[in-house]
Design brief:
By secondary structure, this protein is of the alpha/beta class. Helix content is 45%, strand content 14%. The strands form 3 sheets. It has a 7-stranded parallel β-sheet with strand order 3-2-1-6-7-8-9, sandwiched between helices. It has a 6-stranded parallel β-sheet with strand order 12-11-10-13-14-15, sandwiched between helices. Strand 6, helix 4 and strand 7 form a beta-alpha-beta unit. The longest helix is centred in the C-terminal third of the chain and has 24 residues.
Length: 437
C-alpha cells in the first residue's frame, strides 16, 4: 500500500511492541512496515517498549485503569509470581491477599475510564481506526469509552481464550465475570473486523459469538530466515535440545518442568543430551529451582536479537513445545497458538510437542505432521519421545520437511503481513463510509 493508504491506528493494549514477549513480537511482525507516524499505542505493559514499529506511546496509569478500593494495594509487582512480599510490608498485605482470594478469587474487580490527559493525547493523534486485543474489564471499559467518544471503527484481535479463565473464584467473582461477558460480547459484535490467533479459535468463537472471525498469528520473513535452516541432522541419540518462550504457571511451567526431569533422566541413563531454556528472566528466574534440576540443563534470559534467535534454534537438534495438562491450562490454551510456532517451523529443526490432545497447538502438529507429539503425561513417555526424536533419522527428516512446507504455505510474512495490513485498511475505509452515511 502507498503511505496514504495506511489508516492512523490507535492501539490500546495490555501488551505493547517489544522483542521479549509473544504478544510484543507478534505485533511487531504484523505491523512491520506500517508508517510510524500512523500508529500510536496506549498501554500498561510492564515490559519495555521498542521504537522499531511505533514511537508514539501513552502509558496508562491509575487515571485510566483502577482496581477496586483498598485491594488496589495488593496487586503484584510486574513479573513477580507472587505478590505477598516479605517482611513488614508483606505482612501488612497478607490479610488483604486473603480477603481478595476469599471474595474475588485470583483476579480483582477493575474499571477503566477515558481520562482528560488520554483524551487530549488521542485527539492530537487523530486516529482513524481502533485496534485492540482487549483484556481485563478495565481495558475493555477504556476501549469502549474511546470507541464511543471518537466513533472509530473497531478491530478486535483475540489471542488466547482468556475469557474462559478470567474473573473466576471467590464469593463475588461472578459479578466481575458477568460484567466481563457483557462488555466482551458488545465489543466483539460491534467490531468492524474480528481476528483470532488460529483456525480453531476462529471456528469456536464464530459459534460462541455468532459473528465471523479471521485467523492471524505471528508471521516470519521466510525469504530472510529460511537461509539459516539446515537439513535435520542425525545426532545418533545425542542432542542439543532448546526451548524458547514463556514460562508461565498457567500455561507451560509444569510441562516444561517435566521436560527438564526427562532430560535429567536421559543424562543419568548415559545419553549425551543437554537442554537450554531461553525465557524472559523477569518471569522465569523465580522458577529456576523447578527447571534447572541437573547439570545438563541451563536457564538463560530470552534472545531479543532476531539474527541470534534464528541461528540458535536452527543450530539445535530438537525444539520443545510444551503445554500444561491441567484443566485450567486446557481452557486457556485450547484455541491458542504460541508465537514461536512459525519460527520453529521455518528453521526446520525437529520439534517435540508435549501436551494434551485437546489444545490447538497439539491438534495442529498432528494434523500437519510437523512435530513428534507426546500426549501422555509423565516423564517416562516424554523421555521415550525425546530419545526417539533424537535418534530416528527418517522421523527427523520427515518432520523437518513438513514443518518447512507448512511454514511457507501458512506463515510467510510476504502473504500474512500483507493481508493483515490490507484488512485493517479495509476496516478503516468501511468505517469512514458508514460515518459519512
Amino acid at each position: 500500500m502507498s503511505s496514504a493508504a495506511y489508516p492512523r491506528v490507535l492501539f490500546i493494549t495490555p501488551a505493547a511492541f517489544n522483542r521479549t514477549t509473544g504478544g510484543g513480537i507478534t505485533f511487531g511482525n504484523l505491523f512491520a512496515g506500517w508508517p510510524k507516524d500512523r500508529i500510536a499505542t496506549a498501554h500498561n505493559d510492564p515490559v519495555p517498549t521498542t521504537t522499531e514499529t511505533c514511537e508514539r506511546y501513552y502509558r496508562l496509569g491509575p487515571e485510566e485503569i483502577r482496581r477496586w478500593g483498598p485491594l488496589e494495594r495488593i496487586a503484584p509487582a510486574a513479573g513477580r509470581s507472587g505478590g505477598g512480599g516479605t517482611g513488614a510490608a508483606g505482612g501488612r498485605r497478607a490479610p488483604l491477599q486473603a480477603a481478595k482470594g476469599l471474595l474475588f478469587g485470583e483476579q480483582l474487580p477493575d474499571t477503566g475510564r477515558l481520562s482528560a490527559a488520554l483524551e487530549r493525547w488521542i485527539a492530537e493523534f487523530e486516529p482513524e481506526l481502533l485496534y485492540t486485543i482487549l483484556g481485563t474489564n478495565a481495558m475493555m471499559d477504556l476501549v469502549d469509552a474511546v470507541q464511543r467518544r471518537y466513533a472509530l471503527p473497531l478491530v478486535v484481535h483475540l489471542m488466547d481464550d482468556w475469557p474462559e479463565v478470567s474473573y473466576r473464584g471467590g464469593m463475588l467473582g461472578f459479578l466481575a465475570r458477568r460484567r466481563m461477558e457483557r462488555l466482551l460480547g458488545r465489543l466483539v459484535r460491534s467490531a468492524a473486523l474480528r481476528l483470532g490467533i488460529c483456525d480453531a479459535m476462529c471456528e469456536a468463537y464464530a459459534l460462541r459469538y455468532g459473528v465471523s472471525f479471521e485467523p492471524f498469528q505471528n508471521t516470519v520473513d521466510g525469504a530472510r530466515w529460511s537461509a539459516l535452516a539446515r537439513p535435520a541432522s542425525d545426532p545418533a541419540g545425542r542432542g542439543d535440545v532448546v526451548y524458547v518462550g514463556s514460562v508461565l504457571p498457567i500455561a507451560q511451567l509444569d510441562a516444561l518442568a517435566d521436560c527438564c526431569t526427562a532430560v535429567a533422566k536421559l543424562g543419568r541413563d548415559g545419553v549425551a543430551v543437554r537442554l537450554s531454556i531461553y525465557s524472559p528472566a523477569v518471569y522465569a528466574e523465580s522458577h529456576r529451582e523447578r527447571l534447572v534440576v541437573a547439570p545438563n540443563i541451563e536457564l538463560h534470559d530470552t534472545i531479543t536479537d532476531d539474527q541470534a534467535f534464528f541461528r540458535r534454534i536452527a543450530a539445535a537438534d530438537a525444539l520443545l513445545l510444551p503445554a500444561n495438562f491441567d484443566a485450567r491450562a486446557v481452557r486457556l490454551l485450547r484455541y491458542s497458538m504460541p508465537t514461536k510456532v512459525p519460527a520453529y517451523l521455518f528453521c526446520g529443526t525437529p520439534i517435540l510437542a508435549y501436551g494434551p490432545g485437546a489444545i490447538a497447538q497439539t491438534r495442529y502438529a498432528l494434523e500437519y505432521d510437523w512435530a513428534h507429539v507426546v500426549t501422555e503425561q509423565g516423564v517416562e513417555p516424554l523421555a521415550a519421545g525425546l530419545r526417539r526424536l533424537l535418534g530416528d533419522a527418517p522421523l527427523r527428516a520427515r518432520l523437518s520437511a513438513n514443518a518447512r512446507r507448512v511454514a511457507l504455505e501458512r506463515h510467510d510474512a510476504g502473504e500474512v503481513r500483507t493481508r493483515f495490513q490490507q484488512r485493517l485498511a479495509q476496516a478503516a475505509r468501511a468505517g469512514s463510509v458508514r460515518a459519512l452515511g
